[in-house]
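Appendix C. Worked example: Alanine-glyoxylate aminotransferase apoenzyme
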Amino acid sequence: MDRPRVGELSPPDRLLMGPGPSDVHPRVLRSMSTPLVGHLDPAFVDIMDDVQDLLRYVFRTDNQWTIPVSGTGSASMEAAVANLTEPGDTVLVPGNGYFGERMAAMVERAGGEAVFVDAPWGEPLDPAAVEDAFDRHQPDIFGFVHAETSTGTLQPNVPELTSIAHEHDALVIADTVTSLGGVELRVDEWGIDAAYSANQKCLSSPPGASPLTLNDRAMDKVLARESPVRSWYLDLSLLQEYWGDERAYHHTAPITNVYALREALRLVAEEGIETRWARHRRVAGALKAGVEAMGLELDPDDDWWLPSLNAVRLPAGVDDGTVIDALLEEYGIEIAGGLGNLSGDILRIGCMGHSARDENALALVSALGNTLEALDADVDADAGASAARRSLKR
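Step 2, the predicted output written as structure tokens:
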């Protein structure tokens, strides 16, 4: 076999405004070029401590068991679901989006039975429907998606949902993949027993070390399981020996990704978590004002609008792939189309982390307006750009 001839690595410079990943801060990129040490090196153990403390700050929790899982957000999702779901458990999952369906698939693989809370895609769960589902199914676990990436829907009334679950002696798992570090999230205050996330969205770190937190009640169930977790790699009873006090070998951690996550979390702490939530809302608000002024609609109602992920309804007769391709090829801007029930109906525009900046919102609104006008869509690009600028000046 001939030796392959491969050129230098030179990916294009994109503006990442899709559902993730988001742009990475230069400081985070620099952190990844620092010297590698072993995953049991005392210096790395200190870094592990830093990351855990910083994650507690961002999750707004005092949970001892707060770690980055080695893998993307789907790994932290499966770690939460697989460890808390024992064979025979009934798990109530949301039926209002793509990632509720993924949660159900993981429950089934863990040996549990998934039952759904019915809700239309693009709407949050109704507490009355959750209460009714508890009365009918008596689940052991309740899972909900705080920020549904497929629909741009933010779940309000979280404390009300967790209270319902706890009144029925059920544990609560929250999907915070598109909310952690971008919109208000208070794990302890809101009564969330376990929450998982991803680091490439509102935290703006390269994927590979994904946040997870469990309170004592959730960890007690993990440690008292009668059957082993079906994943050795994601078994939290084993991982606690590495991320707990012992620091005993379990697997080789993604050291460079942990460096990056630490620096990304430092940026969050320096900005201040509440200031960061406000920045996301302000910049996304300009994006929202711009697309609405040009004549487009956001899919979710204002009451459950998700600033970090905006689901923009396509004008009649416009193909989502054509718009996505044009933005990428002509402007270097990445966005995405809809998933599942909303495939072909919406554009998903992220406003997350380092991408959530004034100049990026203005660039996206302008490029989107120009692209749609070139496709003869009934929009007013100038009105959109003006509205976005006015919003940022308020």
